[in-house]
Amino acid sequence: MIEITMPRLSDTMTEGAIAVWHKQPGDRVEVGDILVEIETDKATMDYEAYDAGTLSKQLVSEGEQVLIGAPIALLDDGRATLVPEPAVASLGAVPIAAAPAADLAPAKGAPAPASPVTEEGARLFASPLVRKLARENHLDLSQVHGTGPGGRIIRADTVGLLEQEPVTVVAPASRAVAAPVPAAAATGAVAATEDKRGSEAVALSSMRRIIARRLGESARTIPHFYVTATADAENLVLLRTDLNVQLVAADRPKVSVNDLLIRASALALREHPLVNASYIDDASGEMLVHHRINVGVAVAGAVGLVVPVIEDADQKTVSQLGTEAKALVALANTKKLTAAQMSGGTFTISNLGMFGVDQFTAIINPPEGAILAVGGMSLEAVVVGEEILPRHRMTYTLSADHRIIDGALAAQFLQTLTRLIENPWTILA
């Protein structure tokens, strides 16, 4: 018997949800068969079987979300002994060892919850699942004797605490304590308020919950600062128009303004490599400066925000960038992006100009050090020499991690980007 566990399907994934089971209990499974579709923080991906046998049991229902390494199914391979299956994904996933559900280790790169301590200050060792249960149920783990390896507290050790009646805390006599609101009355008050608002509870998808958590963590933990610049994009518009005429005549795909901006940003990163960097952690005395320039393109699809990555963007022509970007966006909209296509980014561009947005700020996509938020182009009256002429102008804002990028460096990056946009033939050269 083989225990199939939740695999890691992206570099930021800590948990996944079962989207669709393709095999039911009793079905024959061959190596390479699609067992299940798994929804991650970035996309829905197929998980292939690495062993042959008969699917014995589904341990996780469709729509249910579990941590990486948690058992999701049992595969009968003819052997009586349960053999844990390495959690290896079919789409370039990072292999991790399987672990029992009660004792899952934190996902690689995810911060481990602080270990509880006894009243004497001794540290208690508990699995992440137990810590989660303790937080949600207000359990005092100092009362528990761990039976796991090395005295580790596992799920089975908390059964007694979970079965206990909640302890009523009596306030000191010197403090005035407001009378508790009866549950029925509180529920009624909430219902009345929601009726007044005309509210409807809409379930969040697994991807939306993970996006909310990751971006919330980014906004809370990364000291963002913002630098904004505006470029005269008239020459960029004229160059794109002429270029597309020639491309159409040659039966080749057109390029977009965003394709030119990806190329310009990549060239600016080449001139300012310290923007193409990542902060490690507070304990490290180093930061990571990336020698490859891999530009992520934020895509707001029907399933949520995803960021496919164009590798070595500074080494590709505008036409190549345009072709690759269109292909990635199409895959994003159909939830067919692979883990490899969404990992390894060093810088991200988010363009809302097509929605009529003039200017905005974006949240950094960890572990990158910066993100460029691009607004739309508009015709403005501009003084050119001694004349006032209509010119296309574009505004963009760099969000930067102040732990590794200072204001002067961010300003120099935007200065270079503006120079490239205003002299667009240098983007093509």
UniProtKB/TrEMBL annotation:
Transmembrane feature ranges: none
Extent of the signal sequence: none
Residue ranges of every copy of the Peripheral subunit-binding (PSBD) domain listed in the record: 125-162
EC number: 2.3.1.-
Domain of life: Bacteria
PROSITE patterns reported for this sequence: BIOTINYL_LIPOYL, PSBD
Keywords: Acyltransferase, Lipoyl, Transferase
Domain annotation Lipoyl-binding: ranges: 1-76
Gene3D superfamilies, sorted: 2.40.50.100, Chloramphenicol acetyltransferase-like domain, E3-binding domain
Cofactor(s) of this protein: (R)-lipoate
Family: Belongs to the 2-oxoacid dehydrogenase family.
Name this protein carries in UniProt: Dihydrolipoamide acetyltransferase component of pyruvate dehydrogenase complex
Species assigned in the record: Cryobacterium algoricola
